[in-house]
Design a protein that fits this description.
The protein has helices at 57-70, 72-76, 97-100, 111-114, 128-137, 150-163, 189-199, 201-204, 239-249, 264-274, 311-316, 320-328; strands spanning 117-119, 124-126, 211-212, 219-221. With 335 residues, it is mainly α. β3 and β4 form a beta hairpin. Keywords: Heme, Iron, Metal-binding, Signal.
């Protein structure tokens, strides 16, 4: 589909804060009364002007951070000129398109404001620097950047700068991914395989291997599975999470956020095929996430779970029975 994960010279990074059963965004029953104030309606689409980066020492860090977003593998990939931190050759903009500023594409413009925050996946409060490293180690299958490294300072400077374009106390369009209607049946990897062949293989390859650039330093179209793909536990490895992203962004030459190409069900089925670990190899991960069972995301696929549903149902659905189970307990199953 000219790119399930379209590149600007792209890769994975922060994948926004994963929503979970019990998270910084979801309160346990009795923890906080529901607010009665009507939320503001997001109407603005934000534009970021790169020519406005200041011509000073801070601006120099911002510019390097922007380059790291677009050319992550070139600078810190397996053959990186400034360090070898990544375990694959993907770039941050594979997920966070347009340097994290594209609407409905794991937008990062609020990341500077959103951290520190509690992360159920890790079971603790993370700083923004720790969240950056979370993505360096997970989707990039790498090792953490030193917290005082030039690269970390550049990433954080860039996130602060793009945040300056966000109007205070006013929501904007695209700060979260599009929602999808969850089907009453399980997502279908077999149907997803047919859709993948029709719309995705032309860029990502029949075996999901992606297409390397001629210089072999990074990808024109990134791999979707295999030993150089993202790890299990990455946000893109969750079916609902990936389907929300696909809806607004893929195929890259056919879809826009306001005119999606894929139906919700098609996006779910493609995500189910891509993330079907019985079909596809991924990097071998020994340690999994969510130390507290009751905080696991709805579509997280590693047990044990604090409910009676199978691993297969958590991964592929149908999800409504799981949602209803948690609702009956006074908790919201989030994703």
């Amino acid at each position: 589909m000219k790119s399930l994960l379209r590149i600007a010279t792209g890769g994975f990074l922060l994948a926004t804060a994963a929503t979970v059963f019990y998270s910084c965004q979801t309160k346990v029953q009795g923890e906080e009364k529901e607010k009665t104030k009507t939320p503001a309606v997001a109407t603005a689409l934000l534009q970021v002007d790169s020519t406005a980066i200041p011509n000073d020492k801070f601006g120099k860090e911002v510019k390097y951070g922007q380059q790291l977003m677009y050319n992550t593998a070139y600078y810190i990939g397996p053959e990186g000129i400034n360090g070898k931190y990544l375990g694959n050759k993907m770039n941050c903009t594979n997920c966070h398109q347009q340097g994290g500023t594209k609407p409905f594409s794991f937008n990062l413009m609020l990341s500077h404001e959103d951290y520190p925050q509690y992360r159920a996946r890790e079971g603790k409060v993370l700083t923004l620097a720790e969240r950056v490293n979370n993505c360096v180690t997970r989707p990039h299958n790498g090792r953490p950047l030193p917290l005082d490294s030039k690269e970390m300072v550049a990433f954080l400077s860039y996130f602060r700068w793009i945040n300056s374009f966000v109007p205070k106390d006013k929501p904007f369009k695209g700060q979260k991914n599009l929602s999808v209607t969850l089907p009453d049946i399980a997502a279908n990897p077999e149907h997803g395989a047919l859709l993948y062949e029709q719309h995705c293989a032309r860029c990502h390859g029949k075996e999901g291997e992606g297409q390397l650039r001629p210089d072999q330093l990074t990808y024109t179209y990134p791999p979707l599975w295999g030993k150089y793909g993202y790890q299990p536990g990455s946000s893109m490895h969750r079916i609902i999470k990936q389907a929300q992203w696909l809806k607004a962004n893929m195929p890259y030459d056919k879809a826009t956020w306001d005119k999606p190409f894929l139906s919700d069900a098609e996006a779910m089925d493609i995500a189910a095929f891509v993330n079907d670990d019985s079909r596809h190899q991924r990097p071998d991960v020994k340690n999994f996430d969510y130390p507290h069972m009751e905080e696991k995301a709805l579509d997280y696929d590693k047990g044990p779970f604090a409910d009676t549903f199978s691993v297969a149902q958590h991964k592929f659905g149908p999800y409504q029975p799981v949602i209803d189970y948690w609702k009956a307990k006074g908790m919201k199953a989030s994703y």
